[in-house]
Amino acid sequence: MERNAEAAVVWLAPSAVEVLRASKLKLDELGLVRWPVPMKNGGCYEAAVVNPFHWLSKTEDANRRDRLDGEFFQHLMGRLISR
Predict the structure, then answer these.
(1) Cα–Cα nearest to 50, from 79, 80, 8, 83
(2) Of 26, 45, 27, nearest to 36 (Cα)?
(3) What is residue 44's three-state secondary structure?
(4) What are phi and psi of 50, to 5 degrees?
(5) Burial of 42 (0-12, 13-18, 19+ CB in 10 A)
(6) What is the pLDDT of residues 23-71, one digit of tens each?
(7) Which of 25, 47, 50, 70 could form a disulfide with 11 if both were Cys (CB 3.0 to 4.6 A apart)?
């Protein structure tokens, strides 16, 4: 499946997601987010991916983190829509 991705992301294998669910840990506790990974066939695969902005997790950085996350999401969605 990873060969069909149209994105450079680090994501969890489906089996790792099952282990994570069983552990009761939350994605954001581990620096992960749910993300629609674009695929070469034009579709998307909902995956748990590494959040590159997780390092901005201090309370005083919350606004900056949210702004960066929003800009990253808008950029990705803009690319998907322009296809």
Answers:
(1) 8
(2) 45
(3) strand
(4) -70, 130
(5) exposed
(6) 888 887 778 899 999 999 999 999 999 988 776 556 666 676 677 677 7
(7) 47
